[in-house]
C-alpha cells in the first residue's frame, strides 16, 4: 500500500541526496551532509524558508557602448527596447542563477508552476521581455502561495493575456484560447470523453461560457497598473468589451449560473465567481495533485498511487483552499517519496525520473563547483557568453529544453505526454548536447558546437583538492566510488566502480601509480597527469546511464 505516512527517521546520505535533487536546483556535498542528519520534517522546514534573491534584477550588458542595463525598471514602454527575445533569455538566466544560489523549494516550485501555467518565452507571442519577467516574478511570488489565487492573477498577467490572446477576447468577437487552456491545462483537466464535446469534467459549451466571463480583460502596455497583493504589473478591465449576459454552465458544474458584471470593477467579482466554480470541483484538486506527483515523484501513476496518494492529497488541497506548501510538504515527507512503503525494487522513486537538461546543468555546476561569471560584477560574460550563447542557445536548445520556452502551450512533452513523459528528454537529437555538457564545463569550451570559450569552467583537480567532495583523493577506489555515488542516484556496485577506476584513472597502472601522481600534484601543483585523468573519469561518469536519472 502506498503511504503518505511521514518518514520520521533521519534522512541519511541517500535520502538527503534524493530530497535535495527533487526539491531544489542546488546539489552540494555541504548540503547533503547537512541534510543527512535531519528528519524529512526538519529538512522541509529549511527548504521552505523564503530567502532573498542572490541577484535582484536581470541586466542586459548590450550594446557595449550604452548597455540597456536594468531595462525592466525603465519607465519607457517595454516594447521600445531592442532585442526582445535576447532579453527574455536574459530573464531566464537571471532566474537560473538565483535558482542555483537558493537551496530552497521556491525555484523548483516556480518551475513546476511554469509547467502548469505555460507561457512560451518567445516575445513574438508572449509580449515584451519585461512582461515575461513579470510572469516569472508571478510564479516566484506564488511558489509558496495559493494555486487558486495564482489562477486569478495569471488571468490578468500581461504576458499571458498576450500569449493566449485573451486581450482580443471581446463580447462581439470571442476568443476561446485562454478559456480552453484554463480548463484543460491549468486547472480541472479533461476527463474521459463521454460524448462529442463532453469531457466529463467540462464541455465545449462550458468553454464558450468561460470565454464570455473572460471578455474585456486586456493587456496594459504601460505596466503602470500594479496589483496590490503582488506588487507586479497587471492588465486592466475594459467593461465596454465585456459580455454582459448571465453565463450558464453545464451539468459538469451543476448548471451554475454566473451573473454578469455591471461595470469594470465588478468584472473582478464575476471572474472570482467563475474561478470559485472551477476550484469547487474535486476533479480540479485531483488534477493538480497528479501534476505535482508526476513532477516531484515519478511519471507513472499506478492505481495504488492514485488511490493512496493522489486522492487523499487532493482532498487536503481542496480542504485547505488550494494552499500549495502543506501538500508539497506532506508529499516530500512521506514514506512513499523515499521508497519506504514497498519492497518492489522495479518500481523505485529514487532514480525514477530522467533528468531534464536544466536539472543536469544545475547538478553539475553546483556539485562540481563550476566557476561561473558573477552576473553583477561581470554581466557580459555571464549573460552573453555563458548564458545566451552557450547555455541557452547551444546546450538547452540542442537538448530540446528552451527554458520557460516549451514547444507549445501544453509545455515540454516530458511533463505531459503519456506514456513516455520524462523519456522524452532522451533522443538521438538530444544525446550529443547531454553527453558533451560535462566535457564543455570541464574544458571551459563549447564541445557541443563550435569550440568557443564559454566563460565558465570546472577546474576538476582543484575542486577535488580543495572542495572536500572526496575524502581521500589519493586512493583511486575511494576517489572513484565517492564520485560515482555522489553523481548517481543509487549506490554504485563494485563492478561499476572498478570499471570506471581501471578504465579512466589507472589505465592499466597499479593503484600506487595514481597515489604517487596525486601526491606529486599536491606537493608541486603540477596537474598535468591528474587533470587529464580526472577529466576523463568525470566525463565518463556524467555520460553513464546512471547519471541520467535522479
Q: Describe it for me?
A:
The structure is a single chain. It is built from 23 helices and 4 strands. With 550 residues, the chain is an all-alpha fold. The protein has a two-stranded antiparallel sheet with strand order 1-2. The chain is globular.
Radius of gyration: 25 Å
Q: Whole-number average pLDDT?
A: 97
Strand order of the largest sheet: 1-2
How much of the sequence is in beta strands? under 5%
Helix-strand pattern, N to C? HHHHHHHHHHHEEEEHHHHHHHHHHHH
Short description:
By secondary structure, the chain is mainly alpha-helical. Helices cover 49% and strands 1% of the residues.
Task: Please describe the topology of this protein.
Blueprint: H1 12-23, H2 29-36, H3 40-47, H4 84-99, H5 106-116, H6 123-126, H7 129-141, H8 147-155, H9 158-163, H10 177-186, H11 204-213, E1 217-218, E2 236-237, E3 247-248, E4 257-258, H12 267-279, H13 282-296, H14 303-319, H15 324-333, H16 357-367, H17 379-398, H18 431-443, H19 460-466, H20 476-487, H21 494-506, H22 511-524, H23 528-543
Helix pairs in contact: 1-2, 4-7, 4-17, 5-7, 10-11, 13-14, 13-15, 14-15, 16-18, 17-18, 18-23, 20-21, 20-23, 21-23
List keywords for this structure.
550 residues; mainly alpha; two-stranded antiparallel ribbon; two-stranded antiparallel sheet; 4 strands; 1% strand; globular
Amino acid at each position: 500500500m502506498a503511504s503518505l505516512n511521514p518518514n520520521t527517521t533521519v534522512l541519511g546520505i541517500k535520502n538527503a541526496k534524493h530530497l535535495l535533487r527533487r526539491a531544489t536546483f542546488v546539489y552540494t556535498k555541504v548540503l547533503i551532509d547537512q541534510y543527512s542528519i535531519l528528519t524529512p520534517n526538519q529538512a522541509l522546514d529549511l527548504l521552505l524558508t523564503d530567502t532573498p534573491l542572490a541577484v535582484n534584477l536581470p541586466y542586459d550588458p548590450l550594446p557595449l557602448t550604452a548597455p540597456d542595463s536594468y531595462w525592466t525598471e525603465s519607465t519607457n514602454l517595454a516594447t521600445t527596447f531592442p532585442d526582445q527575445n535576447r532579453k527574455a533569455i536574459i530573464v531566464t538566466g537571471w532566474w537560473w542563477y538565483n535558482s542555483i544560489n537558493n537551496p530552497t523549494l521556491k525555484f523548483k516550485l516556480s518551475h513546476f508552476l511554469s509547467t502548469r501555467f505555460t507561457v512560451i518565452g518567445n516575445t513574438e507571442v508572449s509580449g515584451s521581455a519585461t512582461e515575461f519577467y513579470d510572469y516569472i516574478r508571478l510564479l516566484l511570488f506564488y511558489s509558496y502561495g495559493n494555486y487558486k489565487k495564482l489562477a486569478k492573477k495569471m488571468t490578468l498577467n500581461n504576458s499571458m493575456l498576450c500569449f493566449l490572446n485573451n486581450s482580443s477576447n471581446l463580447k462581439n468577437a470571442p476568443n476561446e484560447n485562454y478559456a480552453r487552456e484554463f480548463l484543460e491545462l491549468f486547472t480541472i483537466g479533461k476527463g474521459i470523453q463521454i460524448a462529442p464535446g463532453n469531457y466529463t469534467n467540462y464541455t465545449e459549451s462550458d468553454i464558450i461560457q468561460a470565454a464570455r466571463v473572460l471578455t474585456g480583460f486586456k493587456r496594459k502596455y504601460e505596466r503602470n497598473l500594479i496589483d496590490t497583493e503582488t506588487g507586479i504589473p497587471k492588465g486592466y478591465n475594459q467593461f465596454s468589451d465585456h459580455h454582459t449576459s448571465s453565463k450558464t454552465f453545464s451539468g459538469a458544474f451543476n448548471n451554475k449560473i454566473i451573473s454578469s458584471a455591471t461595470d469594470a470593477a465588478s468584472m473582478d467579482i464575476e471572474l472570482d465567481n467563475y474561478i470559485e466554480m472551477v476550484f469547487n470541483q474535486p476533479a480540479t484538486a485531483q488534477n493538480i495533485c497528479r501534476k505535482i506527483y508526476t513532477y516531484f515523484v515519478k511519471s507513472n501513476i499506478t492505481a495504488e498511487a492514485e488511490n493512496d496518494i493522489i486522492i487523499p492529497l487532493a482532498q487536503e488541497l481542496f480542504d485547505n483552499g488550494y494552499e500549495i506548501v502543506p501538500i508539497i510538504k506532506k508529499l516530500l515527507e512521506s514514506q512513499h517519496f523515499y521508497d519506504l512503503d514497498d519492497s518492489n525494487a522495479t518500481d523505485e522513486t529514487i532514480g525514477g525520473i530522467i533528468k531534464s537538461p536544466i536539472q543536469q546543468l544545475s547538478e553539475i555546476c553546483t556539485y562540481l563547483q563550476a566557476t561561473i561569471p558573477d552576473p553583477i560584477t561581470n554581466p557580459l560574460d555571464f549573460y552573453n557568453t555563458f548564458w545566451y550563447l552557450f547555455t541557452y542557445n547551444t546546450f538547452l536548445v540542442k537538448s530540446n529544453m528552451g527554458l520557460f520556452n516549451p514547444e507549445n502551450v501544453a509545455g515540454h512533452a516530458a511533463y505531459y505526454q503519456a506514456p513516455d513523459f520524462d523519456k522524452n528528454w532522451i533522443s538521438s537529437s538530444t544525446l550529443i548536447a547531454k553527453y558533451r555538457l560535462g566535457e564543455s564545463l570541464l574544458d571551459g569550451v563549447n564541445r557541443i558546437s563550435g569550440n568557443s570559450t564559454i566563460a565558465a569552467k570546472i577546474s576538476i583537480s582543484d575542486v577535488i583538492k580543495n572542495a572536500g567532495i572526496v575524502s581521500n583523493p589519493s586512493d583511486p577506489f575511494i576517489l572513484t566510488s565517492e564520485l560515482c555515488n555522489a553523481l548517481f542516484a543509487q549506490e554504485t556496485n563494485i563492478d561499476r566502480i572498478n570499471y570506471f577506476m581501471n578504465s579512466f584513472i589507472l589505465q592499466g597502472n597499479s593503484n600506487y601509480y595514481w597515489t604517487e601522481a596525486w601526491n606529486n600534484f599536491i606537493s608541486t601543483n603540477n596537474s598535468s597527469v591528474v587533470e587529464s585523468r580526472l577529466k576523463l573519469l568525470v566525463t565518463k561518469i556524467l555520460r553513464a546511464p546512471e547519471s541520467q536519472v535522479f
